[in-house]
């Protein structure tokens, strides 16, 4: 089968990029049934991870497991196993490394970019959509007879117009609501804390109201669906649940987020500054604004600091962040917002960020956008500098 051939090619690429002697990621054993990956952690331990590939791959994701007991890793592996869209093994390994390394504040290996080239993904998606049936007679048997087709059309005729009206222009998962616009109580539905569920419900209701009233809708269907998924994933994440960060939607606009980072590496000067800041205001945090375009996740979010005033930490004068991850050249559509938020905290610490207590923050989105545009132009010409491992 073509999908088996493609899977073998992907395995070959994995072994080439991450051999047994790689510093951070090692593909120790890989077959069409099972792929074993070892992550080398900062404490010297090795997290051995196994992906069991099902017979109907790439229609379904691999089943991920690990004997290394760590809560965040377990959460990521469960997400990968439950994934319905990004099921391809190269994309999933890319997501695993990005999210877990961001959590651990480990530099992402440069080889990772080669895992998710558009050619790899498009080819694999095409192969996953076909039928496994190769015999033409068997295919004919799968087709309904002319009489059956006519009967089905008659049965569906009276509902057809209603279904088209109901689904046309859908942005969010309106199936979560009944005919009275009230959330359903299906057991299959995710259960979030009251405040978070209220936010999700409100966004869905607003989207439905705009559609019914034939009002222009924000962004695009694909971007809105992805942002709703990212929002839910953030609510489920360990970082959010443990209070490392929080987020809210600005003016009920799914494309504008306010993110508050409440904690960073406890051994860093920035952590001590945060403690001092919270002595003045217990609700104080590092506040960022994330703005998304209608082609998200193909383009990165624009993230800038709102408050407090931050010195160093790769924060530019206008509040933009000097991070390759947040530029078109360094961005990947596989990156999750939970990983991005975690990586921002790590970047501030690595850049020796400090809070300017005596400086009133004057960050604006316009200033940040201007400095970010200059940053992108500069690095497009000169490239990005990767510090040696001895610098952290």
Automatic annotation (TrEMBL):
Lineage: Eukaryota, Metazoa, Ecdysozoa, Nematoda, Chromadorea
Protein name: UBIQUITIN_CONJUGAT_2 domain-containing protein
Organism: Rhabditophanes sp. KR3021
